[in-house]
């Protein structure tokens, strides 16, 4: 299940991609399939081990084009172990709402992104997320949980302050908001509640089969109750004079 829409966020074979806070690796795997040189980075060592295993399995199965590469590594989003201007593309999906110093993370992403490079940021959408917080304290008051809810203008403003130029937004996963509302209402750790189990089966069916009915329903629901807000931006090239001054330092 991808949150980033690659029709709005073009990726070319050979692009160097950083999937920051990659989690289980869903976006990293898609970039690898598209022929990119992918680095999947996360602070969770267990998840990184699993991502590395999947990269190896994909290579063995021939799921990635010749020339594509994939690396999974532990790392700190606030101190990325890469030189300036290392990547053509940076993706950070459902991560920034967890990090106290989100401005610091944005600064690091901009640092390692090449001028002219592209970045995709996804966070929980304000409205659906507010419902979750209202229904359940346990949903967000956990170690490593969500510490803020972004309004769209707030996130775009922080991206601009970091030196990025946003060029597009959309909402995603309209079918998933009701599932999380049910989880919050019945208990975030209570997977046995009948409404939660029934809705989960629907989501699994949708992900596996992609039937027309649910695809149409989600497209209709995304603008209304899409669970995620997605923003795309570029890192502008420095004006020639500024670039020369920077190079002379």
Automatic annotation (TrEMBL):
Keywords: Methyltransferase, Transferase. InterPro entries: Methyltransf_11 (IPR013216), SAM-dependent_MTases_sf (IPR029063). One of its GO terms (molecular function) is S-adenosylmethionine-dependent methyltransferase activity. Pfam families: Methyltransf_11 (PF08241). One of its GO terms (biological process) is methylation. This is Class I SAM-dependent methyltransferase. Residues 18-120 form the Methyltransferase type domain. The keyword Ribosomal protein does not apply. It comes from the Bacteria.
């Amino acid at each position: 299940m991808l949150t980033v829409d690659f029709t709005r966020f073009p990726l070319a074979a050979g692009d160097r991609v950083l999937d920051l806070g990659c989690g289980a690796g869903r976006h990293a795997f898609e970039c690898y399939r598209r022929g990119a040189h992918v680095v999947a980075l996360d602070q969770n060592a267990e998840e990184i081990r699993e991502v590395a295993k999947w990269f190896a399995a994909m290579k063995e199965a021939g799921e990635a084009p010749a020339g594509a590469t994939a690396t999974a590594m532990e790392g700190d989003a606030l101190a990325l172990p890469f030189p300036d201007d290392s990547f053509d593309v940076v993706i950070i999906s459902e991560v920034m709402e967890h990090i106290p110093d989100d401005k610091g993370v944005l600064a690091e992403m901009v640092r390692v992104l090449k001028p002219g490079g592209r970045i995709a940021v996804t966070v929980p959408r304000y409205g659906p997320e507010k419902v979750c917080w209202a229904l359940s304290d346990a949903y967000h008051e956990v170690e490593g949980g969500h510490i803020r809810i972004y309004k769209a203008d707030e996130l775009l403003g922080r991206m601009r302050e970091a030196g990025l130029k946003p060029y597009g937004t959309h909402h995603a996963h309209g079918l998933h908001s009701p599932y999380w509302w049910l989880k919050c209402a019945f208990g975030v750790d209570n997977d046995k509640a009948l409404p939660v189990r029934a809705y989960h089966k629907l989501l699994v069916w949708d992900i596996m089969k992609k039937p027309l009915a649910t695809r149409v329903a989600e497209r209709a629901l995304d603008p209304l109750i899409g669970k995620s807000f997605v923003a795309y931006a570029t890192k502008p090239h420095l004006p020639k004079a500024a670039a020369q001054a920077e190079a002379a330092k």
